[in-house]
Amino acid sequence: MIQIEKLVIVGAGLIGGSFSLALKKAGAVGRVVGVGRRAETLERARQLGVIDAIGGYDADTFGDASLVLIATPVGQMQAVMRSMAGLLGGSTVITDGGSTKQDVVALARAELSNHLDRFVPGHPIAGTENSGPDAAFSDLYRNRRVVLTPLPENTPASVAMVRESWETCGARVTELPAAEHDAALAAVSHLPHLLAFALVDELAARPNGEQMFSFSGGGFRDFTRIASSHPEMWRDIALANQQALSRELASYRSKLDQLQKLLDAGDGAAMEALFDRARIARAKWLPVSK
Fold first, then answer.
1. Residue 160 lies in domain
2. How far is CA 127 from the centre of its chain?
3. pTM for the whole thing?
4. What is the pLDDT along the chain (290 residues), one digit of tens a residue?
5. Which residues of 42-62 are buried (b: 16+ CB within 10 A; e: fewer)?
6. Strand 67-70 versus strand 93-96 pairing type
7. Burial level of 80, CB count in 10 A (0-12/13-18/19+)?
8. What does the alpha-carbon distance between residue 46 and residue 133 come to, in Å, rounded to a whole number?
9. Which of 54, 132, 162, 229 fits as disulfide partner to 120, beta carbons 3.0 to 4.6 Å?
10. CA-based nearest residue to 19, from 113, 114, 144
11. Which distant-in-sequence residues (6+ apart) come within 8 Å of 251 by Cβ?
12. Which of 119, 154, 176 is the last residue of a domain?
């Protein structure tokens, strides 16, 4: 099992905090130092045992780190990378948990150019609608997929360290090119979040919005659960993956137009056929997703 002497997590919330707690539970990390924007968040993470100490953008924090995980919204990553670039030790491995990868790779090439052999981009496809250190838990990544998008410059040892760290958290690790990752996640993650936000916002803006919500049941609750997600994070993800997400919105709009035509025409048979195809496709996917 991997042994990490010192882990630095930049962003001690759900993603970074759960990574820390999973490694702590496995006995795979010696010391965890947290860095972030808000002192109160870091102090809460320390009280909860998510981190052992609070650090800052200084050589004492980063100079002897074995592994650094950047677990901030993607919109903050340029500033984080720029702040840490001159502080990293010569053997420190860096990774991230961003939901988009092409933009993160571009930022790393600009801000961490002297460390590209040791910057291994990653994305844990796991999370909840909650955020902050109180939301973190050690089993978040168990049996969940983590995608790495290694750079040509990466050393095999750096990739192996990041892979083994996530596997120690219980994750299933795969590798993809960054562009392929972003296209896939636009369809199955980023688009559903936009749809949930849009539906809740549209209903809430109606004069009888409160009444509408009072009549909602489990289906509405399940469909819109992710509209409780962190707005800043999802704003950054949408903008970072703008082109792929725009294509997915257009494709979905086309499917809605198709349903509109079937509904207006009263074509129940065609609607049922579409619903049945979707039901069968989801039934095939469910066992694989567990």
1. 4-176
2. 7
3. 0.87
4. 789 999 999 999 999 999 999 999 999 999 999 999 899 999 999 999 999 999 999 999 999 999 999 999 888 999 999 999 999 999 999 999 999 999 999 999 999 999 999 999 999 998 777 788 999 999 999 999 999 999 999 999 999 999 999 999 999 999 999 999 999 999 999 999 999 999 999 999 999 999 999 999 999 999 999 999 889 889 989 999 999 999 999 999 999 999 999 999 999 999 999 999 999 999 998 876 55
5. bebbbeeebbbebbeeeeebb
6. parallel
7. buried
8. 9
9. 162
10. 144
11. none
12. 176
CA angle 69, 73, 74 (to 5 degrees): 90
The CATH number linked to 147 is 3.40.50.720
185 — phi, psi (to 5°)? Answer: -70, -25
Residues 115 and 215 in one domain: no
Rounded CA separation 19/123 (Å): 12
Quote the CA–CA distance of 214 and 218 in Å, as a whole number. Answer: 12
> Which residues are within 8 A (CB) of 223 and not within 5 positions of it... i.e. 6 or more apart?
196, 199
Residue keyed to tokens 């993956």:
241
Q: Are residues 161 and 77 located together in one domain of the fold?
A: yes
Read off the tokens for 239.
Answer: 């903008």
Amino acid at 128: T
